[in-house]
Amino acid sequence: MKPIYLDHAATSPMHPDVIQAMIPVMESTFGNPSSVHAFGREARHIVDVAREKVAASIGANDKQIIYTSGGTEADNMALIGVANARSEQGKHIITTAIEHHATLHAANYLESQGFEVTYLPVDESGAIKLADLQAALRPDTVLVSVMMINNETGIMQPIQAIGDLLQTHPAYFHTDAVQAYGTEEIDVDTLGVDLLSVSAHKINGPKGIGALYVRDGVPIKPITFGGEQERKRRAGTENVASIVGFGKAAELAMQKRTERKAAYQLLQDTFISELKLSGIDFFINGESGQRSAGIVNISFPGTNVESLLMNFDLSGVTVSSGSACTAGSVDPSHVLKTMYGEDDRVTNSIRFSFGYGNTAESVAEAAQTVAAIIKRLTKGKE
Ligand SMILES: Cc1ncc(COP(=O)(O)O)c(C=O)c1O
């Protein structure tokens, strides 16, 4: 039995072209990009070429890209870096209750440092309301951070509308675009964002590398100390091979974005129609919201998440219950709790996410396996 991997929102397999781009770097380009000799200059050159590719993939220029160790560090840097740089102007931050923990825990940390944070709620659609944001804005609000696509439900947030709204407010606007990158069109100017986080391993690139886009003029204090890399904004020797892989993954994502989005949507549609055909009882969480092509979160009434995860895994269907970081411990999802309160959905939902390597056949087979398990687990409970 070959497992069918439907957990691309947790991480995705590396594209063969990405691997091919990284191998020669690991084999022979070992210089430190900060060194002025030829070895260093060669490494610097490939880091800069990749930076241009990453920048182009979001409509930015290379000077606006800070490499990080991934989405988590980019989110931490955006929140803590901007809050610390702007604390004289105000100590109020707005984010949402459904952010990834990389943002939420950074916000919690800032609260411990004397900042005040408003966490916007979402309703059953899984999206925030602009009116709630408008009501929460204050003269001392220095930063608004709202993710582009939720990693558990795939629900899109109204980023461009928030960008428009904030044109007349001095608060800076950060979006965590980790789950949108690679399938959604991202142009930092059209979206009206000042800071934007991306991560390579969600777009078939290597793990441990990502970037934060910072608009010109946005003040940001470093959160690491020791070197002058990344224009004095992120200390530490660059992860050269991964940066090259990231550049390749960004380039591929840009070239194939429309194709990928259509393909993932077809996979999701195939999966859902196969579940419907089976006759089992299920609900799509956030059904009324606008959903990403690659992610769907499904509630199976009369089941519980632990036995679902165990049975799916034993049958070769690889999924998770939500955010990868909490996947090991099946804590109730903070996202579903915000959407549904104490509803059973919080304890009987699974995230299915589609991507590179999945085929319509494998996804249909996975849906049939899922349906057979649900029938077995709910037998006699109807
Ligand atoms: C929305 C979102 N933000 C941030 C992250 C963290 O990214 P990384 O794993 O690159 O640190 C993830 C990863 O699950 C995510 O889904």
Structural summary, described in words:
The protein has helices spanning 16-28, 38-56, 71-86, 101-112, 130-136, 159-165, 188-191, 229-232, 240-278, 305-314, 334-340, 360-378, and strands spanning 4-5, 65-68, 92-96, 116-120, 141-145, 172-176, 195-199, 210-214, 283-284, 295-299, 317-318, 349-353. It has two domains: 4-12 and 256-377, Aspartate Aminotransferase, domain 1 (Alpha-Beta Complex); 16-252, Aspartate Aminotransferase, domain 2 (3-Layer(aba) Sandwich). With 382 residues, the chain is α/β, with parallel strands linked by helices. The strands form three sheets. A seven-stranded mixed β-sheet has the order 2-8-7-6-5-3-4, sandwiched between helices. Strands 9-10-12 form a three-stranded antiparallel β-sheet. It binds pyridoxal-5'-phosphate.
Quick description:
With 382 residues, the chain is of the alpha/beta class.
Low-confidence segments, ≥5 residues, pLDDT <50? none
So what's the overall shape? globular
Quick one: CATH class of the largest domain?
A: Alpha Beta
Bound small molecules, deduplicated: pyridoxal-5'-phosphate
CATH architecture level-2 label of the largest domain: 3-Layer(aba) Sandwich
Query: Structural class, from helix and strand content?
Result: alpha/beta
- The CATH superfamily of the largest domain is identified as Type I PLP-dependent aspartate aminotransferase-like (Major domain)
GO molecular function: cysteine desulfurase activity; iron-sulfur cluster binding; metal ion binding
Keywords: Iron, Iron-sulfur, Metal-binding, Pyridoxal phosphate, Transferase
Cofactor: pyridoxal 5'-phosphate
Catalytic activity: (sulfur carrier)-H + L-cysteine = (sulfur carrier)-SH + L-alanine
